Amino acid sequence: MTLKKVVCMQCHNACRLAARVEGGRLVSVEPDQDFPGTKSSYAITKGCPRRRHVIEYFYHPGRLNYPLKRAGNRGENKWQEISWEDAIGEIGRRMEDIIQKHGPEAIATTSGTGRTHDEIRQRFFNLLGSPNHTGAGQICYGPFCVMSNVVLGWRLFPVVRKQTRCILFWGGGGPRYWDIFWRSALKAQEKRGAKIIVIDARGTDAARRADLWLQIRPGTDCALALGMINHIIENELYDKSFVKKWCHGFEQLRERASAYPIEKVSEITWLPAPKIRQAAEWYATLKPGVTNHGMGVEHLQNSIETLHALFSLVALCGNVDVEGGDVFTTPYPGIIHEQEIAAHHRLPEEQIQKTLGLENFRLMSRKGYDLIQSSVRKVWGNLVFNRTSYEVFAHGPSIYRAILTGKPYPVRGMITLSSNPMVTAPNTRLVHRALKSLDLYVVVDFFMTPSAQLADFVLPSTTYLERPWLWTYSGVVGSERALPRTVDGAYDRRDDYDFWRSLGIQLGQGEDWPWETLEDLYDYRLKPAGLTFREFMNQGGFLAGPKEFKRYETAGFGTPSGKIELYSKILEELGYDPLPRFYEPSLSPYSRPELAKEYPFILITGGRHQPFYHSEHRQNPSLRKMHPEPVFQIHPEAGRKLRIKEGDWAWIETPKGIITQRCKYLETMHPQVVHVQHGWWYPEEEGAESSLYGVWKSNCNVLIDDEPSLCNPISGGWPLRGLLCKVHKK
To answer: Whole-angstrom Cα distance, residue 677 to residue 202?
Structure first.
């Protein structure tokens, strides 16, 4: 029996595990008791349902084992096995035909949650000459990273320490979202009297443990943040010396926030004025404090403006890069970081200008990225290349429209790896029409999905248990290959590096892929540290940067002014409002009162739920038994008025579509708000059209409108919360 250390990537906690392998077969995966950080996270890793049932997942009969080529019409679920070599050869030739007719920009790609190697995907597409990469990062953590860099010049990271006196959860972020942080917050509350403030439309577990819960009207978070800022400034609760020395644009922000007195904000947000005052005063005076935002912020129409206000709030109270507050992460300096591998410099300017959506949505494009990078580099040097790969995108809704209309130019090919756009992209019916109309669609995944059923080629990918891993976040973590790449006669799955490299070589990129394997690439990345990947693993598989605080005192901030930019010069140069601003969501009871008569509920979607992760794991019997069906939440009073009992199936409908989920009463839900679960499809149902594994039945993205005019005007992020819907009994 062999014990191999691994890093689990079935979510973003990156727990350290020990995999036992006997005779080439995985027999158990347990918490790694030898890793220093395991003790603090043991309860999480031991109790995690995905870890406990990973054997069932790994050996699931539905796993993709060999490359498949479509043998019938799109969506007929007719396939034939094909070798990797033949698949790559045919895909490459068909891509060459598209490029010859329409240019490399006619090939697009979709990505998922950043748990694969997006820097390698981006390397391939930068070498290819296409800027058209879209994915979930546009509405999930990407906006947070980008705006942290815009306002503060680096990525801010909340760390609860013994000094922490206030923990602000905004839009989620509680248990089952980031368990280690949540447990640290509870410990600070219980043992040291720290205050927990929760701002969330739903009465989640975090709200029930809060010292102060603000049940905000969905879509009005920016108004609340500006109201808190105004109250703090008016009552001189801000950190005057820090603001004077280190903040740019204080007077402009003061003027903007002055339009949001507490009483006005109370009317906008549906929050009692005393609670708003209390939240502002606690956060400003109980220092240091940390702020952990959830997806409830990034899923809003005005997500970028809200994040701008939140980072301004953190800065005004002096909670930046101090022990017990929000700190700047420092990756290990002695390695080659992800963005250098991404080879952004290889994408010509003329191709960057072809980025779909660039004329409107510039912040999360190469245009915004390069502008931010030029300032960040002055302070952080080579470490800027540690920045997350999912900060650079084309506008997803614009890509799907270009596929269908050919405007502003045709998009005829797409590669989906580590994502499932038929479930996770907005406006599912439009996505469906677009994918079916492509000349070439390729999917790389672990299982067949609704998206894969529409593909020309479906290629089997390795999980974290079948590949080496090197992941840079606040440090570097790594894992051995827990199982060999292939078990003779059992399967031929390959990691995404193998896929992108093989396809790159097929398309003439051979000189730019000198590393034969992913492990060879890791050897190259670790070479400045004097280590090979194997040596790195043998010494524990972890390198961390120095833990320092207040580094700005010697280097300043990585922004154009060298200060925290409450008034953003980067946003101004990109042609946007340089200050945070609130605007009413486009689809709300106030902006569309006539529509609200027919659709009287405010809809929020996207809440995550164990044991699943986004759209994954619903084919795992043990996990599905824990949560067999989709659930929407409604206040009991509202449910009874509609004659919908708890447990009934009901219809949830928007002007865009209609789905069904089971009713669950939630006493702490506002009577005018409905929450619909994210990520639902039914792997046990028919894979062929028209079912596509039941993708139309309960998938919340059927309800979502992604019309560009409804998207965030700065980033292009599509609204998933603060919409309008109606509910009726099935």
So the answer is: 13
- Rounded CA-CA distance 498/72 in Å is 27
**Number of domains present in the structure of the chain:** 4
Strand duo 156-158 + 326-328: pairing: antiparallel
Angle between helices 396-405 and 428-437 (to 10 degrees): 50
| Phi, psi for 259 (deg, rounded to 5) | -80, 5
Query: What value does the CA radius of gyration of the chain take, rounded to a whole number of Å?
Result: 25
Q: Are residues 165 and 292 in the same domain?
A: yes
Coil, strand, or helix at residue 600?
Answer: coil
Pairing of strands 195-199, 212-214: parallel
DSSP 3-state assignment of 463? coil
| Residue 318, phi-psi category: left (phi > 0), alpha (psi -120 to 50), beta (remainder) | left
Structure tokens at 523: 């050897």
- Of the listed ranges 64-68, 204-208, 401-405, the least confidently predicted one is 204-208
Chain centre to alpha carbon of residue 86: 34
Average pLDDT over residues 314-341: 91
Helix segments in 412-493, DSSP class H: 421-424, 428-437
| Average pLDDT estimate for 594-614 | 91
Can you tell me whether residue 266 is helix, strand or coil?
helix
Amino acid at 678: H
Q: Under 8 Å CB-to-CB from 588, ≥6 apart: which residues?
A: 219, 596, 602, 722, 723, 724
- Cα–Cα distance, 655 to 632 (Å, whole number): 18
- For 235, the domain range is 156-328+554-573
d(CA 422, CA 68): 19
Q: What is the pTM of this model?
A: 0.96
| DSSP SS3 for 204 | coil
Q: Phi and psi (nearest 5°) for 333?
A: -75, -20
Task: Please tell me the number of Cα atoms within 13 Å of 16 on its side-chain side.
Answer: 21
Cβ atoms of 436 and 451 closer than 8 Å: no
H-helix or E-strand spanning residue 16:
strand 16-22
pLDDT at 546: 80
374 within domain boundaries = yes
User: 586 lies in a domain?
Assistant: no
CA dist 481 and 297 (Å) reads 37
CB atoms within 10 A of CB 436: 15
Per residue in 412-433, pLDDT tens? 999 999 899 999 999 999 999 9
- pLDDT, one tens digit per residue, over 154-171 is 999 899 999 999 999 998
User: Which burial class, exposed, middle or buried, applies to 490 when counting CB atoms under 10 A from its CB (0-12, 13-18, 19+)?
Assistant: exposed
Cα 717 from Cα 12, distance rounded (Å): 21
Question: Which CATH number fits the domain that encloses residue 185?
Answer: 3.40.228.10
Closest CA to 291 of 302, 280, 301: 280
Residue 234 belongs to what H/E stretch?
helix 221-234
